[in-house]
Amino acid sequence: MSFIDDFLASWREYREPGYYDSFDYHWTMTVDLDRCTGCGACVTACQAENNIPIVGEDALARGREMQWIRIEKYWEGDFPDVKLRFIPMLCQHCDAAPCETVCPVSATYHNQDGLNAQVYNRCIGTRSCAVYCPYEVRYFNYNNHHWDAPLEQQLNPDVSVREKGVMEKCSFCIQRIRQAKDVAKDEGGRRVQDGEVQPACVQTCPTEAMAFGDRNDPESQVSQIMSDERAYHVLEDLNTAPSVVYLRKVEGDVV
Amino acid sequence: MASIDRRDFLKLVGAGGVGTGAGFMLREAIKHPVENLVPYPTPPEDFSPGIATWYNTVCSMCSAGCGISVRTLEGRAKKIEGNPSHPVSQGRLCARGQAGLQVLYNPDRVTTPLRQTGERGSGDWLPLTWTEGLAQLSGRLGELRTNGQGDSVCLLSAGVGGHMHGLFEQFVTSVGSDRLVYYDYDHPHELMAAMNRLFGAAQLPYFDLGNTHYLVSFGADYLGTWLSPVHHGLGFGRSRQGGDGGRGRFVQIEPRMTVSGAAADEWIPANPGTEGILALAMANRIVSQGVYQGEDSDAWAAALAPYSADAAAEQTGIAAETITRLADTFAESRPSLAIGGDGAARHSNGTSALTAITALNYLAGNLGVEGGLIFNPEPVAGQGAAARHASHRSMLALADDARQGRIQVLIVNQTNPVFSLPAASGIREALAEIPLIVSLSSFMDETTAMADLVLPSHTWLESWGDNFPEPGVGFRAGAISQPVVSPLYDTRDTGDTLMMVASAANPDGGLSWASTEEYLRDRWRGIFESDGAAPEEDAATDVQDDAADAAQGAQADAAEDVPAVAAEGAQADAAEDAQVDAAEDSTAVAESVPAEDAAVAADPDPAGWMPDAFDEFWNSLLRAGVWGENTRADPGPVTVDASVIDTIGVDAPEFAGSSESYPFILQPYLTETMHDGSGANLPWMQELPDPLTSVVYGSWLEINPATAEEMGLRDGDLVDIESPSGTISAPVLTYPGIMPNVVAMPIGQGHTEYGRYAAGRGSNPIEILASQMDAETGGLAWNATRVRLNPTGRRANLVRTSGLSRDLGRGIIQTTASGEEEHASTNLRSIPITVEPA
């Protein structure tokens, strides 16, 4: 009864500690806060790539914005010794993601690449995940959105348009990852090379503050950057093990 | 059982048959037309469903000239990304550039030629055909020309460079006029005048931010809106963390914190309009400390003597110790760089302030060195375009001419002076005096709404053109701007419209090209032939070869509407290669120039190969999206004429309105989303939270929190902002990064026209500006109007996307002091949770 043996073997593997932190690829993003200027190019690039709707002024006034990546701003001090700091905030693709454990229908799950994925067709809109997410990066479709014609001609056919009642969030531009993996598969099943895939935000960043890659590859750019002593996770004490690594902003460098 | 006889039976059968037939016919008549699921059983040759085609072109959302690649699928533009081979953008792009797609697909475009049937501004438009529209305009122009009144024709356009400038020049000449006026709200008149005064070169230099170690910016929001933000962003990032020579440091001097101020290591507020005085005090320190060793140091010392640190401290509000510290660090850091932008330039003393700031680079030895100020070579095309740029003073003169009846026909192209000139200029009333206004704009903006005739142009993603970036990058570079999709509507290329009108009005005018594309090909043939003599100067690189190889299958005839394309693979390859290059050296990217070596080698016969070689060159230009050289010329030693040194000096700034009745200085500022208001019709830009305040969809007035508290104002309180020239209202927003005597307001909202996303939203601070001008150039001194605030007691809806504006010890943004290294590197690779094995 070999299929039972196979099944049990898989089951045991699935139960092994460490199963969840060994991924085929482990996609990771790094953001150097010393380079980030808060310009917002990433926000618009994401909106263009991922068919993020134009929600309108009324929805924004109710706090129903849709931005898979946003720039958070924090003031420090008072005039004239005042500082304004920026941080791009997006889904951290936590390896121990609180949102995944709470979903009653497993609409959000961890895939084999270490991505926190969202299945729109499965989502029933309980919004529990948004409550559990400490980074507040999940966005709920309170309405069906529409694009004034002909704006819909810009929509990216590689990304589905979400409907009312569905939760959505950053996917690390999974459509680009899929495409890069398809190309790699067609070229003799090689692995995706470092630099071959970039999400829209990383691609456009004018100050090159962001980088993206596979941290399972010790030679990759993100692996190098992660070893910098400035590296940290936001809200690290929550033990969410994010896949977005920030580099501390350097301050007080005044002569 | 009912009996049916034979006759009834036959009647019934007959009636049934007729009924069936009629029903069938009826069904045929009302059923929906057949729709094909696959729209392209035989697709056009350059697209295959599901596979992206990338076109390289040039972004026209601002004047920087970033090279871009546009991803298209099934003939529709989907995404804009920076062209990795282009020296300005190097693969990167700003938010507004990304939103270029919403210019193309904007629901409020003018889709067909229109004639105003009611009063001007009534909005009663009647569609008409191009033949009628063109005839109406060219008939009038021809009439004026034969009457010798050609000079009463004025072409007023947004700034145009490259060869398109030549076309515009030829247009006005051929209709017998010399009135070609470019109007951009933020054209850097003062910087060009300062460069001219010091070095005799009225050009925008290249500021090498990427290699500088110490940048002092006097009111230049170089990361947000000033000159070439994407390129400056690249430089900033590389200087900060990418370079070998240690972390570059950035100082920002300005009364209100901009994006660049927030990014700086040190933000120093200075009294508005005193930036030039600060620069002279720094220069004084550099000269008096003997750092400057030039032969003319005595002349400098004499000229700078009145500008001591103590005197400057009083005027600028910056401590004397800070001034000497800045001067000493500036002189010690090698290389350092001083730049002056809108904050310093848009004052009554603008040109003299920028002269002082630029002179700092001279005194500290930053000219022509890596990481300093680098002179740009003479542009390949578009010489003379700068001279056509109208300052505020020239616009007032134009308005005066209109009032005096000296302008019979005004042709407006993609510029909106009714919105971007103060109401005090009287431009709206002046335009009303012009008998015929024709607009070539793509949108119904405030100026177009006053037109009698609209001959709508293609948007830039549907048009031909070329671009030589301004400011340049220190070496010759250029790119062709090509259509990436077929035109959506019944619009025309601006160049085509002008050529058709000109050749109808004046058949001997010399504008005889069939299309703008033909015109450009003709002009680039000139470049090709002059460069073709020495093809070895242009180095072919891997990027180019890859692009050429990959694009072979998808190559289209350049003579057709759809231009040659670089296939997706080529784009990806080019991206990789160029990024590697770019990381090493910012000049290296320019190696990816189209070269004609291959073609030359293939057919050595000069008489036979010329046309084909040019086509090859042209196609490779379109594929690569960039052309240029890869070396910088050495400018040699630069000296400042002794007579110029004597004139160095900065007067105290003058403001409209007295400080007693108008206690605040108003600083209207350009935003990176709306820019001068042209971005307000793009929903992505309306919804992109302002980088500094997170406000969306609206305008606001920034005020220091302490001042607001004194006046009893809270966020969202509506105030009337009254200047000597008018009143507007806006909600108050407390902003910690602004001086107590200054209020600031973003430019861009307050449109009365311009489509559903822009019209009727917020207010326009330009409206209430006084006609204060820079003494030398006549540029609008838009930071030189005083205002007072009259609370209305009402509240306004101020929509912001951010929650708390303070971190409150949550450690979301962590910082580290410079050089500090004891941060225990947390092990970011492991998951600390482990499950006990069962």
Describe the protein's architecture and organization.
The complex is a heterodimer of chains A (255) and B (838). Chain A has 255 residues and is of the alpha+beta class. Chain A has a single domain, classed as Alpha-Beta Plaits (2-Layer Sandwich). Chain A contains 8 helices and 11 strands. Chain A has helices at 2-15, 41-49, 57-61, 98-102, 128-132, 174-186, 200-204, 221-226; strands at 27-32, 69-76, 83-90, 108-110, 116-118, 139-140, 167-168, 210-214, 231-232, 244-247, 249-251. A 4-stranded mixed sheet of chain A has the order 8-1-10-9. In chain A, strands 2-3 form a two-stranded antiparallel ribbon. Chain A is globular, with a radius of gyration of 20 Å. In chain A, 47% of the residues are buried. With 838 residues, chain B is an alpha/beta fold. Among the domains of chain B are: 19-93 and 508-626, no CATH class; 189-374, Dimethylsulfoxide Reductase, domain 2 (3-Layer(aba) Sandwich), CATH 3.40.228; 664-795, Barwin-like endoglucanases (Beta Barrel), CATH 2.40.40.20. Chain B is 33% helix and 15% strand. Chain B has 26 helices and 27 strands. A 7-stranded mixed sheet of chain B has the order 5-4-16-15-14-6-7, with helices on one face. In chain B, strands 22-24-23-26-21-25 form a 6-stranded mixed sheet. In chain B, strands 3-2-1-19 form a 4-stranded antiparallel sheet. In chain B, α5 (162-174) packs parallel to α18 (494-505), α6 packs across α14 and α9 (275-288) packs antiparallel against α11 (309-316). Chain B is globular and about 125 Å long. The N and C termini of chain B lie far apart (85 Å). At the A-B interface, α2, α3, β2, β3 and α7 of A face β3, α2, α3, α7 and α8 of B.
